[in-house]
Write a structure and sequence with these properties.
This protein is of the alpha+beta class. It is built from three helices and three strands. The chain is globular and about 40 Å long.
Length: 96
């Protein structure tokens, strides 16, 4: 039989694993404050997970953005729908 403290430790660990956010984010955070002030472009891809991921892969194949530059899939209020966000810095030279 397990000691009482041991079982409670397991329950806390299970609760942390189930309900608490991952202590190490899967996405690197991008600090936009330290750079000169270029224009910032944000693209949103919203749809079913396969459609959104397909869009991310298509833009990667076109050389526009790597998949890891996008946010992780974020749930929306609609069932079976996610959103991914891409933030890019653009200068006037790149826009022409």
């Amino acid at each position: 039989m397990m000691p009482e403290t041991r079982q409670s430790d397991r329950l806390i660990t299970l609760a942390q694993a189930t309900f608490l956010p991952d202590p190490e984010p899967q996405q690197p955070l991008i600090d936009l404050r330290d750079q000169p002030s270029p224009d910032i472009l944000r693209l949103l891809a919203i749809g079913s997970p396969p459609v959104v991921n397909g869009c991310v892969i298509t833009l990667y194949r076109l050389g526009y953005a790597r998949p890891e530059e996008w946010s992780r899939p974020l749930p929306t209020v609609n069932p079976n729908e996610v959103m991914r966000i891409l933030t890019k810095r653009m200068t006037l030279f790149e826009q022409e």
